[in-house]
Amino acid sequence: MAESGVQLVAGTDAGIPRAYFGGLISNLEFFEHLGVPRHRIIDMATTSTASALRLGDQTGRLAAGYRADILIVDGAPLTGLNALRAVRLVLAAGRFHIPHSAVARWAQRPASVQQADGGA
What we know:
Strand 2 (87-92) and strand 3 form a beta hairpin. The N and C termini lie far apart (43 Å). The protein has a three-stranded antiparallel beta sheet with strand order 1-2-3. It has helices at residues 24-33, 38-52, 100-107, 111-116; strands spanning 70-73, 87-92, 95-97. The chain has four helices and three strands; from the N terminus they run ααβββαα. By secondary structure, it is an alpha+beta fold.
């Protein structure tokens, strides 16, 4: 379907190998396993999904006039989708949320590393 230009979106109703409820990253990795390029998978999880939900004029891309919905991760998802598992910060509609896992990762670093990066 991807090769035929069908609009694919991120998400699953489960029931297929490597896809289960609550497993968005695993679902995205499954598309990679099938040969879909990472840049297209990221588009599926953002722009295409927003469009399919009829929210494409509000969110799904970084542009003036769109909601400030940003996911900041440790790593580069275009290099490896696993980076999406290391969420550092979520900005949703302009409101910040720092996941407990990000706080825990920061707290586990040596004090010298925390000071070297300005405490962030």
